[in-house]
Amino acid sequence: MADSSAPRDLPRSGDDDDMLELNEDLERMIEDVENMTVQLTWMAYDMVVLRTGPELGASIRILEEAYRNCRAAVCGDPDQE
Length: 81
Hints:
The protein is mainly alpha-helical. The chain is built from 2 helices and no strands. The chain has helices at about 15-50, 55-75.
């Protein structure tokens, strides 16, 4: 009596040419998706970095300096941390 939990061989439908064509189609689709991902990444970069006003960078630098001054006042010398 055969063990019912043993894996069964599935009948092979099609031939190697079909599998090769399927693999090529999948590779092409993956490459297309990767290209779209790169394009979307550059679009996001463009929207966030290139279209951000220069005032934002100046504001961030002012806030960073204020943070350092406050931290130095509260914690003492920042080199001791």
